[in-house]
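RESIDUES AND SHAPES:
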Amino acid sequence: MVDLPNCPKCNSEYTYDDGSLFVCPECSHEWSVELEVENSEGSKDITDANGNVLNDGDSVSVIKDLKVKGTSLVVKVGTKVKNIRLVDGDHDIDCKIDGFGAMKLKSEFVKKV
């Protein structure tokens, strides 16, 4: 019997292989075999809100109004951010936004341009 990985989303043990994808029947999450191999090697891919893999130097667009802590400023939807840098931590994108300066963003609030 083949030892299949647990679902990364809900940790279910009832995953199955569907060609080039692993599928979880409990939460309907699908992920690729290649992604599982890369993750088992220790590399962590950072993805945007749509699931696209982000890399250093990419350009992204903000998909939600984001309040800036400690100020009354708001980073508006559609703000484009160029030349991002990926870092470890909760806020996994380091960048400079025109009019705001250096910021840290969460990848779940951006999409790749």
About this structure: The mean pLDDT is 87.
